[in-house]
Amino acid sequence: MIGLPRTTFSQITLSLIVLLFINLLIFIFFLRWFVVDPGAMQFADMLSNQLQLLEIQCRDLQATEAQAWLQTNLPQLGYEIRQTSTHFSKLPPVRFYQIMQQSLENHYSKSLIIRLTDEDAHSKLWFQLAWMKNYWVGIPFHSYLQNIYGMISLILTLTTIMSMLMAYCITTYLLWPLKELGRLAQGLSQMDTALPILQHKGPKEIQQVVSLIEQSAHQMRKLIQDRELLMAGVSHDLRTPLARLRIAVEWMPEASLRHDMVKDIEEMDAIIEDFLEYARAGQTEPEQLIDLAAFINSIILDFHRQNFNIHLEENIFIQLKCRPIAMKRLLTNLLHNAFKHGAMPISLHSYKACGQLQIWVKDRGEGVKTQELRQLFDPFSQGNKARTKGGSGLGLAIAERIAHTHHATLTLKNRVNGGVKVGVIFPNDHQKN
Length: 433
Hints:
rod-shaped; Helix Hairpins; Beta-Lactamase; 3 domains; 54% helix; 12 strands
């Protein structure tokens, strides 16, 4: 869904925070109706009793007389008399005080005035009633209930921080095997390196999955290595008799027949090479940074030496991280396809668009039917008869496999005025300006 976090850590953290928030709301509801409100009313009843006692004893006394009576008879309670309200403040908008004031007003109507001071270690509530001779009576009190919501806010902050720490620990524990699988996947694509040794941690179920995937990865690596060994053996076993045939053909007296047989042998050798390239796709070659402009110029120069004219529309100066031999095979395949299946002029264009490096090879041939564009990337697939002029049908398949090993995308499109263009689009992390 849009707006929701995508990582496991953030999802677990958000879930814990939401659950804590819901629990806190339920806790506040029960706290309000079963603790704060009853506590405030009980506290108000106690204050009402004390005020009624003071009214009986001090109703007809002046301020100084009332103060003397309190110091003589109730010194331990800390009652105080003041004639001014200079440092008094109104009750804060807290539910405890609101319920307490409402309950006291039910006893004394609107004639009761309540103020608050917090000068000493303990707060004091100051009351003024009609029977008092223009003075205030201060009653000390201290109750955690008036600060309960502040305590809840502090608890919520602490629990949120603890939840995030717990979420981090839990996700680290759960995702560690997945990170190990990511290392395994990276190692699987690098055929010249050994597969990483995984540390089997985390829950038992995830460890079982990691073990199965690890076994599958080792089996896959062995299958790929066996395939490469098989292809190498087939290449050796086929090319040896082809070489003997080539030598024998050179001694044939008929020139036309010799020429045709040599051409067939060369085509068979090229097909074998296509099979090997499709199997390897440059996976064993290490990556390195190349100067793309010089690299493309060298490829075009090789084609010019073979009397193939290529028009270079634009050549961007950029450092590209790639496997040079495989990348040369990719672009060479695209250019050979353009010359073999398309028509002049053949052009090459490298540039950056939308932050991505793009290399396009274009021709002016007959084009390809729209429904056949995607099929051309399949092994042994060839386009319509107007563009087909022999070949093994592996050129684009090899190019696509090489592009995938570079995490790039191979795209084939028909041009507006006839012809086809094939583009290689690289991700941003392969480029260094």
